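#onboarding

Welcome to the new folks! Below is a worked example of what a typical request in this channel looks like: someone posts a single protein sequence, and someone else replies with the predicted structure as tokens. Don't worry about understanding the tokens yet, we'll cover that in week two.

Example request:
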Amino acid sequence: MPSQARQSRNPGRSRDTCAVALTLVRDFRFEAAHTLPWHPGKCSRLHGHSYRLEVTVEGEMDERGVILDFADIKRLVTTFVLDRVDHTDLNGVIDNPTAERLVAQVGDWLDEAGLAWSALRLWETADCSARLTR
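Example response:
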């Protein structure tokens, strides 16, 4: 039985040049401390986290076959986010630095940077995260 060619999502266009919606995800890590004075438990005391920030960018491939170079994402996130928060007391960076407020602030900083992100996820611990989407 002859094999059938795989059909393109965009008939008449080659796989290399078709406009396909894709998602890029790049992870970043940083260390920071914070205090949540309103918290009834141990989070009311100064403590730190090994944060993981997941940055998602959606788009179409350009003629080079990329949405955006991973190095460009790294440069923008490093300059506009990591340089502000890594090895800091987050209470000196934003008020009431909960995971929710911090991921919202990261979104504002990346907007300022001109990065067209579609989702941000900030992991405060291995199993607790806050996600911001557009």
